[in-house]
Amino acid sequence: MQILATSGGFLPTDYGPFYWRRGPLIEHAIALAGNPDRPRICHVGTAQGDSVNGVAAFYRAFAGSDARASHLELFSMPNVPDVRAHLLDQDVIWVGGGSVANLLAVWRVHGVDDMMREAWEAGVVLAGVSAGSICWHVGGTTDSFGHDLRAVTNGLGLLPYGNGVHYDTEERRRPVLHQLVADGTLPTSYATDDGVGLHYRGTELVEAIADRPDVAAYKVERGPDGTAVETRIEPRLLNAADW
């Protein structure tokens, strides 16, 4: 049972915002599945309302490769006849960013929350960025409700921690996470700078990994005096040349 929760994944190209390339974090997710010859990887874009541009960018990133790319959309109806069977048939499920609050609500309407747990328990690698990172945890900080960050506390809870994303690029992420951990809204939490991923096996953090230098992951705990205590976790730098 493995989860890769990230603040990164696909990387931009010079061709435009919806022309992605596979970054080291994407390749690492596939490697966690055992490097199958023709990996089955499914993009789930619920958090962006199943954006057509996002789906197209995902397929472009895998064009010409041996990967068997697919996607799951739920708007305005599921695009596959059996959602559960489709998810369980994957090596990797990659969940994109966007509104984690909306993602969780829509998944629960369709029973996808239970399907994701079943896929995880069956050995499918669950992975994703931003909303696709927070969703596996108890909750985290989100702008789903507006520009002011708030807590989301109804995550799937596969991982018994809170989660912070975009820790180094959005200035309010760190103080809000500290506040939520200090006041008990969120449990002990793990956070990632952009380009960093957290690899969990079962519910234990195995390591932090990064697709660029000078970034980190962080553990945020409630101290004995009721304040948040942050510990930096140095990630292992993935070598892009390996992919």
Helix % is 25-40%
Number of helices: 7
Average residue-wise pLDDT: 95
Shape: globular
State the domain count.
Answer: 1
- Return residue spans where pLDDT drops below 50 for at least 5 consecutive residues: none
Q: State the total count of DSSP E strands.
A: 16
Task: Give the strand order, joined by hyphens, for the main sheet.
Answer: 5-4-6-7-1-12-13-16
**Rg calculated over all Cα atoms:** 17 Å
The name of the CATH architecture is: 3-Layer(aba) Sandwich
Structural class: alpha/beta
Described by its quaternary structure, the protein is single chain
N-to-C order of helices and strands? EEEHEHEHEHHEHEEEHEEEEEE
CATH domain fold name? Rossmann fold
> Tell me, what is the CATH class?
Alpha Beta
